[in-house]
Specification:
The chain has a 7-stranded mixed sheet. The protein is α/β, with parallel strands linked by helices. The chain is globular and about 60 Å long. Helices cover about 40% and strands about 20% of the residues. The structure holds S-adenosylmethionine (SAM). S-adenosylmethionine (SAM) binds near residues 89, 91, 165 and 218.
Length: about 290
């Protein structure tokens, strides 16, 4: 086998001609993903990149990844958004890592209410919100604990890099199966069921939707927000970030949080060797100390 052949992927599906994908294409795309999103793809993610970008190759009628790389270089404004949306991993669900929401209900709500009396506002950020289930779970938790929440200045900001997921999140429409397992009374209070051809869908009620502001935001870029957050959820987002990128990000999170504010991270994540500005107070729950 010559060098060229060993560097080019072979067909994965007999019905579809394989795209030519060289080491240098992969290397270019990895660097671009890292510089644009902070996501650090290992050598083992080659097939993932190939698979995720195949629909972009088909959309442009291309057969060689080097032509796709050229397109990204020549016309980033038109393609970078599609490229990013194709690369991100958006897995999420309602009340994922439920202990975080139980912690809010059982312990944090009193602190938040006390803080509200002093500040007259509360702000929570779901950073890397994907399709919005995390933010709606937060809204449900807050509304259940504070029935007259509409009379208060309490808001959730929910942001993601991926423009497609932010659109889905803002619509607030999900498959009915996504809320299976939730308490039936809670479902009745929080979701509307579709009718006719939409009966397999549910929609978050307006009372939840108006608590949340969904926006596209790349965590690697400047943050336009003013004011400090009382709590930040950044869960299962930095899992593919390298240590220096995480160190910078959590320093920035500390800078945009109230002293004593709470930070929630994903089940496989830790701030050990990443930041000394937070104290671990529960399972993947931190408080800003300095
Ligand atoms: C696996 S989802 C996690 C969703 C939710 N936080 C949860 O735990 O269920 C990770 C999300 O992080 C987003 N993400 C990745 N890099 C990002 C960046 N640089 N800025 C903003 N969002 C990013 C992805 O688009 C994706 O929707």
């Amino acid at each position: 086998m010559n060098t060229l052949e060993s560097n080019v992927d072979t067909p994965t599906d007999a019905k579809e001609p394989a795209f030519e994908f060289s080491d240098s294409d992969f290397s270019y795309l990895r660097k671009l993903v890292f510089s644009h999103t902070g996501i650090s793809l290992s050598e083992q993610k080659r097939n993932l990149v190939y698979g995720r970008l195949s629909k972009r190759m088909r959309a442009h009628g291309l057969s060689r990844f080097c032509d796709y790389c050229r397109l990204l270089k020549d016309n980033p404004d038109a393609e970078l958004e599609h490229f990013t949306n194709a690369i991100t991993t958006n897995l999420t669900s309602f009340f994922r890592e439920k202990h975080h929401f139980d912690f809010i209900t059982d312990e944090l709500i009193h602190t938040l209410q006390e803080r509200y009396h002093t500040q007259r506002r509360l702000r929570i950020w779901s950073a890397g919100c994907s399709t919005g289930e995390e933010a709606y779970s937060l809204a449900i938790t807050l509304r259940e604990a504070i029935p007259d929440i509409d009379r208060h200045d309490i808001r959730i900001l929910a942001t993601d890099l991926d423009t497609n997921v932010v659109k889905t999140a803002a619509l607030g429409i999900y498959p009915a199966t996504s809320i299976e397992g939730l308490d039936s009374q809670l479902i009745r209070r929080c979701f509307l069921r579709g009718k006719g051809e939409h009966e397999d869908q549910i929609m978050a009620v307006p009372e939840l939707r108006r608590l949340i502001c969904f926006r596209q935001l790349n965590l690697m870029h400047d943050w336009p927000m003013h004011g400090l957050f009382d709590a930040i959820f950044c869960r299962n987002v930095v899992i593919y970030f390298d240590t220096p990128t995480k160190q910078v990000l959590f320093e920035r999170f500390a800078g945009i949080m109230q002293p004593g504010g709470h930070l929630f991270i994903g089940h496989a994540e830790t701030l050990r060797n990443i930041s000394s500005r937070f104290q671990l107070i529960g399972k993947t729950i931190y408080r800003r100390t300095c």
